[in-house]
Write a structure and sequence with these properties.
The protein has 294 residues and is an alpha/beta fold. Helices cover 39% and strands 20% of the residues. The N and C termini lie far apart (41 Å).
């Protein structure tokens, strides 16, 4: 297949590219800057210029390909998370519309989060924006294209970790460095699910090739890691005290770090033969490259 990949030069997208190539696919990567375009060209990817707000460019990219993986998401300002999700929905509308009536695959990216603690989220659960935040609406919109001749599926991501991570875990480390303590919220028993970027990349390709319309896949390696354990590794690696702190200690990240959102991938593993093979979150923090950077 000729595959249109949004987020191609990003943390997850750059791991999806070699998986697609190994599977015999040709990659067309969305690039919004000269630097991203050069990175993609060096990786042997066909470059398509545009961004998530250039809807005509998204339509052209999708229409010219045999399938789409949409893993880009606006990360510029997490204080406007609702606005970021609205941009994501606009991109999905454009991509889905370009594929309508073709039976071509569209894999969109969603999350496993549900801000109601105490129950493990499974693939059979339809997430509602009132309980899971505005990104759940992107999944709802995407699935509306299943009745319009698109083989659409949703790959739900938990916390993604691995080499090159500049996301949630890297932010926690930076906050600990700046404040002189590695914190958790409350008793720290709330849990974060997680997956290694390389394991997630393999599942994106499986979804593209095999997932039926309306399928939900969970790229979950760790079902739920207590946040106190995450803070414990960070504190030990930095030589800092580990203690309970107010949610406001983490700024915009506080709402996410306070959540208890365990998630299972048992159904995904049974249905698609996917098995996490990389290091778990705590092992990656302990032995990976998170503390090798300045």
């Amino acid at each position: 297949m000729r595959v249109f990949l949004t987020g191609a030069s990003g943390f997850i997208g750059s791991a999806i590219i070699p998986e697609l190539v190994r599977a015999g696919h040709r990659v067309v990567g969305l690039a919004r800057s000269d630097a991203s375009a050069a990175k993609l060209a060096a990786a042997g990817v066909d470059v398509h210029r545009g961004d998530l707000t250039d809807l005509d460019s998204l339509r052209r990219g999708a229409a010219a390909c045999d399938g789409v993986i949409h893993c880009a998401f606006p990360h510029e300002d997490f204080n406007d998370y609702a606005g970021n999700c609205a941009k994501d929905r606009g991109a999905i509308e454009a991509l889905g519309g370009a594929l309508a009536g073709s039976d071509r695959p569209l894999v969109i990216t969603s999350g496993t989060a549900r801000f109601t603690p105490g129950r493990v989220v499974t693939e059979d659960e339809a997430l509602d924006p009132s309980a899971s935040g505005p990104r759940a609406a992107s999944e709802q919109l995407a699935f509306s294209f299943a009745s319009r001749g698109v083989r659409v599926s949703s790959l739900r991501l938990p916390i993604v970790h691995g080499d090159g991570d500049a996301g949630f875990l890297a932010t926690l480390i930076e906050i600990a460095r700046k404040t002189g303590r590695s914190g958790y919220i409350g008793d720290g028993e709330n849990r974060w699910p997680a997956v290694h970027r390389l394991d997630a990349a393999r599942l994106f390709v499986l979804a593209l090739e095999e997932a039926p319309a309306g399928a939900r896949l969970h790229a979950v390696g760790d079902e739920g890691v207590p946040t106190r354990d995450i803070a414990g590794v960070i504190g030990r690696k930095l030589g800092l005290p580990v203690e309970s702190v107010p949610k406001e200690h983490f700024g915009w990240l506080g709402a996410f770090f306070a959540s208890d959102t365990p998630a299972s991938s048992a159904l995904t593993q049974a249905r698609f033969g996917w098995k996490p093979a990389q290091a778990g979150l705590l092992a990656d923090l302990e032995h990976g490259t998170y503390f090798a950077r300045a």
